[in-house]
Write a structure and sequence with these properties.
The complex is a heterodimer of chains A (338) and B (913). Chain A is of the alpha+beta class. Chain A is built from 11 helices and 10 strands. Classes of the chains: A alpha+beta (338), B alpha/beta (913).
């Protein structure tokens, strides 16, 4: 990571010339790199993860760790279907969720019978984590209406990235590709970014003393080093079914809209995009998804909002208040003269 | 596959799956075990193809299928038989294709009796030996017209004829027939036509039977029948995909035959988007049968000669291929002579039968399980394990480990210190006290192996394609390639024998053993591949590589190590190393790697055109006859004599390739036809018939014969079997279990359980059970369960999941338990655990000696298993309660009427000590 890259972005700039509005809310979802001060930046790139064709092979998880030299997350059987890494973490930057889902009989996609999908959308069972374990329920009805969802999650590389906003050291920065990257040699492990992320993506690496980057904030870099030499990120390169697609964001968005239409035409009415909307709470993601159910089912927040989104307004209010105090004080002193 | 079509490989290539209109995946978990190839299934699906998955478990493959149908493990033949019945009963077969390209019209001998007539067995069954005399299965007229001196063949050669038919040998060619003259009725009406025999045989494979045996509802069956028939014919094709979920059964070969019959009836063979994708177990398994690691094969599917009947080259050749039959297999002499020349060079001359006597001859069954039993009898001194971890990966792991403890020496070449290298200090038998380290005399030599990126060489993968891999980095430390190891070992042995005058040392001293070496002393893998390809030895082309096996001569003027691989070095170029990107060539991508035979990507592709040589349809055009150029042309290399016109008819008395008509697409078959009915070549029946697995809680409702009457059983005290339904004690083992693989691990774990990135993804051995079974046995999700068979008990973490469904079968609810088999007991790997394969005994398929390791019966109990010697007592108690004797489950001819009297009633003779 070049110091130049850092030098031209980061807090100086965020709180300096670009002004509050820009620092805490890019006006252009395609141009966060430009907003960050990059001149002649390449088109913004990202991931489109089409979960409808994910086969849950986890090649993305392995390729990511292999390329980035990330440590394992421990050898624990989680009892969570075929998912044993659990969630995105400081060491796991791609994570495949497995959701075993019973659906109300006679309404939803008939996976067992291969019957045509009902166009009417059934009531949603959210598949939220519950306190009951598999098998606890006595109910075995509707077993023929079953599906197994798989989805590879990753850092969203938000247009309005709260992690970047709150980073006090400038370790997190906006790259020329519009992605958000931590600089390991700048990060001091303060952890401000961790609660700032509305998706719960970034985390400090846990591990024994001596583990690479232990204690530092860590997350997907969208393979910044590979991008720099014109290569595809490791996870997208490894994906055998092109569930993870890498490309310029504009093109990916077009592809995604087409794909949703194709699925809708095929009767998969539950297909929807997640995170692609520039009007969303994070200004649109650099990594967005095609889901087959509500985001909560996949462990994704339904309506993520950059935790720093309100800061400009708050600063304005604070500024007004300060001005008011100042005025009041001036008035007070002035009054005393009288 | 060999018995049906003439060659044992997958009939197409993975990229061709995208051309399919319907894909049936059965006996395979393709998405998990072949994720890279599965992209073509996803591609087909994106183009609108219907994907159907039929499997005991809802796996990651099922998750992507349009239709998933749960089936009871080991009942696939009933399902396939019902599909055949539907096709025949509703006239849904591809009439023109069936008449022209299959043996449907051929008449079967009057002597043939079907299983329905003989109470559960085909004609020719000998209950004493558990084998068939297959002569009554012959075509009509074949045995009536003995050719040459065949009339002089007595019982002895008949017996060896049935022995030699063992399925492996059919990998590169079809079974032999004495001659090509068969009686045909092209109206298919004669009651003894194969067509009518087939129709009668499958009449009892009804939807009701499918429901009763497989646990599949009639509407689900009908759905599949309609899908595959609607997606077959001139305009459309269906592909069938199978893997080891079909092969690891005592009826494995017949299950594959079932799909072969369907694909022939529907006219899907030799056509784009059709065929049968036989997915091989891992990277170069196809290669390991082409250049075999099997005891009964020589390279190129030449049978290994036997002591006695094959003492001379002429005797051997006369028996493996009749010179009077049709097809290319009549050139077996040429292929054999070239192999002998490749091995023994100048020492192989016409005068000494090309040193045929140097080849060791078989004296019996030396398959992997027979070998382990010989170890236990102290008949084997040493053992080489190369990328093999039998302590975990083979059925009956305990027998494997105990066997190895009898060896004097054991060489393990692997990437890691696998359980087969450490069983003597940390195996399960050390824990139970059955073995004590200080008592084991086996000297174990561990050699670190180079991985595929650390050496040059080829993979021959699932679609018969050789792909060259270049060495990217030097192997670390002492690690070296298998090639280098064996080359050096050979040199050392030859040095020791140098100067010997003992005749028995000649085969080793006369070997051509002179490969160029690089600066590290490693022999050139390319030189070995070139030797396999073959070269001209004399004449003006002397020293040049052969371009095709048609250039091979049987006079010693050429040499080639494996005739089916000839062409991989065509024009002196390593064709396997070609990597022209797909976007720069047509979709068949003939310039990526090289596929045997002669770079043909879809086998039998002559059948992609009608008998007149025209494509069946524009949509499915692939290879066709060009009238102007007077040759076969198309997208692929024609799997046919390129200038033989469709109208060609052989002259009277022709044999060999010249006897094949212009419309005989199955050129390795003795009659040029695809075999709906196998008159020879198989040991357990000319058509698939359903038999229950060796261990089954279900009574076979189809026949008065429980299990395959030709399966190889080993009634030994250390190999007890669970009683099947109808036998005493069957209720002790009420559940069915099946084993499988996960994407995250590689087979017995030698390549994955030492890697943190893979181990963390599936860290522990678990069992998949339905919520119903969990309640029945009190199993708690993420807790522990103990799974018990007559062999042993193992423990696994419990995964209660809706993906496993109990099936209504035989009037009761059958629960199935899923067990991934990747873990083993030891201290070296990052993740360890009990091994699922320890649960199995050894019972083999008669054709290919493959173990039944995809289905058996068991009991399941909550909690962890007993430790130490208590484990032995725990399992012994199970055997006592079930009354298990040596006879239990091992009776070959086992009509149900005998069941009640067949069981030992006093519980004596209790098996394993």
């Amino acid at each position: 990571m070049s110091t130049q890259a850092f030098g031209s972005s980061g807090i100086d700039q965020a709180f300096g010339s670009s002004g509050l509005d820009q620092a805490f809310g890019s006006s252009d979802p395609n141009g966060p790199a430009r907003d960050a001060g990059w001149e002649d930046s390449p088109p913004r790139v990202g991931f489109f993860t089409d979960t409808s064709i994910c086969i849950g092979c986890k090649a993305c998880e392995v390729a990511c760790k292999e390329w980035n030299g990330n440590p394992d997350d421990g050898f624990d059987l989680l009892g969570s279907s075929f998912d044993n890494t659990g969630q995105l973490s400081g060491s796991t930057w791609r994570h495949v969720a497995f959701i075993e889902q019973r659906r109300p009989a006679g309404t939803a996609a008939g996976v067992f019978l291969g019957m045509p999908e009902s166009p009417a959308r059934p009531p949603v069972e959210l598949g939220m984590p519950s306190l009951s374990r598999p098998g606890d329920s006595g109910d075995t009805d509707g077993r023929t209406e079953f599906r197994w969802l798989m989805s590879s999650d990753v850092c969203k590389h938000c247009t309005n990235a709260a992690c970047l906003d709150v980073c006090p050291t400038g370790a997190l920065f906006r790259t020329e590709f519009g992605t958000v990257v931590v600089q390991d040699d700048i990060c001091n492990g303060c952890g401000y970014c961790v609660p700032a992320c509305p998706y719960g993506v970034i985390d400090r690496r846990i591990g024994e003393q001596g583990t690479k980057n232990v204690g530092l904030a860590q997350k997907c870099t969208l393979c910044y080093d590979r991008l720099k030499v014109g290569q595809t990120p490791a996870c997208a390169q490894a994906c055998p079914t092109q569930s993870i697609q890498f490309g310029t964001l504009d093109e990916l968005r077009e592809r995604a809209v087409d794909r949703v239409q194709t699925l809708h035409d095929a009767g998969v009415s539950e297909a929807r995009l997640y995170g692609e909307d520039p009007a969303g709470g994070t200004g649109g993601s650099g990594a967005f998804f095609l889901l087959l159910d509500e985001p909560e089912v996949y462990g994704l927040p339904p309506d993520p909002v950059a935790t720093t989104a309100d800061l400009p307004r708050m600063w304005k209010h604070a500024g007004l208040a300060a001005a008011g105090f100042l005025a009041a004080a001036v008035t007070a002193f002035a009054g005393r003269r009288r | 596959m060999g018995a049906s079509f003439g060659r044992g490989g997958a009939t197409g290539f993975l990229q061709d799956l995208e051309k399919a209109d319907c894909i049936v995946i059965q006996g395979s978990n393709m998405a998990e075990c072949h994720p890279v190839g599965f992209q073509w299934v996803m591609e087909a699906k994106a183009r609108g193809a219907r994907v159907i998955h039929i499997d005991p478990r809802f796996s990651r493959t099922s998750a992507q299928a349009d239709t998933y149908i749960p089936i009871r493990a080991g009942s696939d033949i009933v399902f396939l038989g019902a599909v055949i019945n539907y096709i025949l009963s509703n006239d849904k077969y591809f009439h023109e294709y069936v008449v022209a390209y299959t043996n449907a019209a051929t008449l079967v001998s009057e002597d043939f009796k079907d299983v329905d007539e003989l109470d559960g067995v085909f004609s020719g069954y000998d209950p004493e030996t558990g084998t068939y005399d297959t002569s009554s299965w012959a075509y009509d007229g074949v045995s009536d017209h003995p050719q040459g001196d065949a009339g002089g063949q007595g019982a002895e050669s008949e017996e060896s004829a049935s022995e030699r038919a063992a399925g492996h040998e059919l990998g590169g060619h079809g079974a032999a027939l004495e001659h090509a003259e068969v009686k045909r009725d092209e109206t298919l009406q004669h009651p003894r036509t194969v067509f009518q025999v087939l129709k009668r045989h499958y009449a009892r494979y009804t939807p009701e039977m499918v429901q009763e045996v497989c646990g599949i509802a009639p509407e689900q069956l009908l759905d599949v029948c309609e899908a595959v028939t609607a997606n077959s014919g001139r305009e459309r094709t269906t592909c069938w995909v199978y893997s080891v979920g079909w092969t690891h059964h005592t009826t494995g070969v017949q299950g594959i035959r079932g799909s072969a019959i369907i694909q022939l009836l529907l006219g899907n063979m030799g056509r784009p988007g059709g065929g049968i994708m036989a997915l091989r177990g891992h990277a170069s398994i196809q290669g390991s049968t082409d250049i075999p690691t099997l005891f009964n094969l020589l390279p190129g599917y030449l049978p290994m000669p036997k002591v006695g009947p094959h003492d001379s080259l002429d005797e051997y050749l006369k028996e493996i291929a009749s010179p009077d039959q049709k097809g290319f297999w009549t050139n077996a002499r040429t292929y054999t002579v070239n192999l002998l020349k490749a091995w023994w060079g100048d020492a192989a001359t016409a005068e000494n039968d090309f040193a045929f006597h140097y080849i060791p001859k078989l004296t019996g069954d030396h398959g992997t399980y027979a070998t382990v039993m010989s170890m236990l009898d102290d008949e084997i001194d040493g053992y080489f394990l190369l990328g093999q971890n039998p302590a975990v990966g083979s059925a009956h792991g305990r027998m494997q480990r105990l066997g190895m403890a009898h060896l004097k020496w054991l060489v393990v070449r692997d990437l890691n210190l696998i359980e087969s290298a450490t069983f003597w200090k940390d195996g399960p038998e050390i824990e139970t006290g059955e073995l004590r380290t200080e008592d084991i005399d086996t000297e174990v030599f561990f050699f670190p192996a180079a991985s595929h990126v650390e050496k040059d060489g080829t993979f021959t993968q699932t679609q018969r394609m050789l792909q060259w891999h270049h060495k990217a980095v030097e192997p670390p430390g002492d690690a070296q390639s298998d090639l280098a190891f064996f080359y050096l070992l050979g040199q050392k042995i030859r040095d020791r024998l140098a100067g010997s005058t003992d005749e028995r040392d000649r085969p080793i001293l006369d070997l051509t053993w002179d490969y160029p070496v690089d600066e590290h002393g490693d022999p050139s893998a390319e030189a070995v591949l070139r030797e396999i390809n073959g070269v001209h030895l004399t004449g003006e082309k002397a020293g040049q590589a052969l371009n095709t096996f048609n250039e091979m001569k049987d006079d010693g003027s050429t040499a080639g190590g494996c005739w089916i691989y000839t062409g991989v070095f065509a024009d002196g170029v390593n064709q396997a190393a070609r990597r022209k990107p797909g976007r720069e060539q047509n979709w068949v991508a003939p310039e990526w790697g090289w596929a045997w035979p002669l770079n043909r990507r879809i086998l039998y592709n002559r059948a992609a055109a009608d008998p007149d040589g025209k494509p069946w349809s524009e949509r499915k055009a692939y290879v066709w006859w060009d009238e102007v150029e007077q040759k076969w042309v198309g997208h692929d290399v024609p799997d046919f004599e390129v200038a033989k016109p469709p109208s060609y008819r052989p002259p009277e008395g022709a044999s060999g390739p010249a006897a094949l008509s212009g419309d005989d697409p199955f050129i390795m078959q003795a009659d040029g036809k695809g075999w709906l009915y196998a008159p020879t070549g198989l040991l357990d029946g000319p058509m698939p018939a359903h038999y229950e697995p060796h261990e089954s809680p279900v009574t076979n409702p189809l026949y008065n014969q429980q299990a395959n009457p030709t399966r190889q059983v080993f009634p030994r005290p250390d190999n007890p079997s669970n009683p099947s339904n109808g036998e005493r004690g069957a209720e002790i083992f009420p559940y069915v279990f099946t084993t499988y693989r996960l994407t995250e691990h590689h087979t017995a774990g030698g390549m994955s359980r030492w890697l943190p990135y893979l181990s963390e993804l599936q860290p522990e051995f678990f069992c998949e059970v339905s919520p119903e079974l969990a309640r029945e046995r009190g199993l708690v999700h993420n807790g522990w369960a103990t799974i018990v068979t007559a062999r042993t008990a193992i423990e696994a973490r419990v995964m209660v999941t809706d993906r496993v469904v109990p099936l209504p079968v035989g009037g009761k609810l059958i629960h199935q338990v899923g067990l991934p088999y990747h873990w083993g007991v030891g201290n070296e790997a990052l993740v360890t655990g009990d091994s699922a394969n320890d649960l199995f005994g050894v019972t083999l398929d008669a054709n290919v000696h493959i173990q039944e390791s995809k289905v058996a019966s068991c009991d399941v109990q909550p909690g962890r298993r007993p430790r130490g010697p208590e484990l032995l007592e725990f399992v012994a108690d199970y055997r006592r309660r079930a009354g298990i004797t040596l006879e239990t489950g091992n009776k070959l001819r086992y009509p149900h009427s005998d069941a009640t009297t067949g069981a030992d009633t006093d519980g004596q003779g209790e098996g394993t000590p």
